[in-house]
Amino acid sequence: MAFLHLLVTSLSNDLALASPSPRDTIDHIPDIRSLSSIIYSCIFTVAGCLWISVRPNIPSPNHSRLRILRSKLNIMFWVLASPDFVVFWAFRQWLEASILAKKYRDRGWTRTHGQFVIIGGFMLYSEGRPLQTLSVQKFNALLSEGAIEFPSITESEIRARGQQSPILTTIVGLQALWFVIQCSARFSSHLYVTHLELLTLALVVITALLYVVWWDRPLDVGHAVRVDLKYDYPGLAELGEERTERYDFIREKRIRGQARKLLAPEPPAVKRSRSYLSMAFSLLFRVFIGWPFLSIIEDVGALVFSVDSASIPEGSLHPPLFYCPETSVIPYHVLLPITSLLGCAFNGVNIILFSSTFPSSGAELAWKIGTLVTTGFSGLSVAIYIALLFNQIILVRFSARFLEIWSNVLLTLTLIVLCCGFLAFLPARITLIVDAFVCLGSLPETAFDVVSWTTYIPHFS
Question: How far apart are CA 214 and CA 234, in angstroms?
């Protein structure tokens, strides 16, 4: 993190020293764009695409608007930082929603109903008070036991509960379409494409994929549908919450536990006198190092492996942020390599600008290192998943004790490598975003030329 701080400081100094292009102040000349229009179009495009594509779960009735916004911003952060993880999570939800739609097809259910259950669409009530949000497992179990009535809600009623504005969606769609067309036109016309525009273009493609996967998922639903419990059901807390996966993620939980002890240790049972300097240092460590890193580790565990996010805790009035039920065996060995390859493509596209203009050698080095680290991490993930797949095949054929021990060692080393690699991946990703803005300080003249016919497409810039 200290390296990242020094690098960002150096890059910011480069931007401050770089002289603005004379074309930045010439907004009235035809077929010429300004630096501000480049920045505004990228920011508006990214913000709009994120807002309509990110669809969080239904919040608790007790949640404030600030907490609801924070949950959505948390998912947006991960789309910016590691979109392949979010796509992997969204696609697993899509699979579970498809299973639910098939299960209750004779009752008129569609994938929209399945997604509605997954986002916490049904709240269990008893004697007029809410007990908890129904997980997919508990919903299925209570229905099979006859403890609840089958909810009668149509697909149109579910969509009406969402807050998706057709006008805003159309505006963002036109803006994204214009952005893709004008970037493609610039590439084909051999006009300069800025680093910020390339990052934005990649994000537009990713958010479009996310929008398609979550097409059946209503946007920003505020309240769940009430489902009444017919009678007191014994053992309600444990009903239907078992996981179907044979892999229980014990290693992931142990690594997360060790990280929690290291980054956010419990206060000692016996209080001892400490200096003000020691307490201040401990507070700063928790706020700026411990809490961010621990949040990242827990979010990655929930996003990728559904650690503590495959079920809804007893009495909770909302699902976990990255909730994804596991009512069937999910083909991790297929989905993880595919999404990692998507991450390779998303980060590897930055190689296109390796030979472009940079304001300084530091900015050029930062762009190349950031690209290689992010792309390399995704490539390493693919290689590891393939190695684990072959290892599993060997274990099926040869069940010798030595091979089992080797498998445990390999899995543990894999988790350690992935955790350490991700700690390098995230700063590298942030460096790329910062560097994209820094590179705007020294642009060639062709960066301000426009393809004239693209200006006739409605857009904001």
Answer: 36
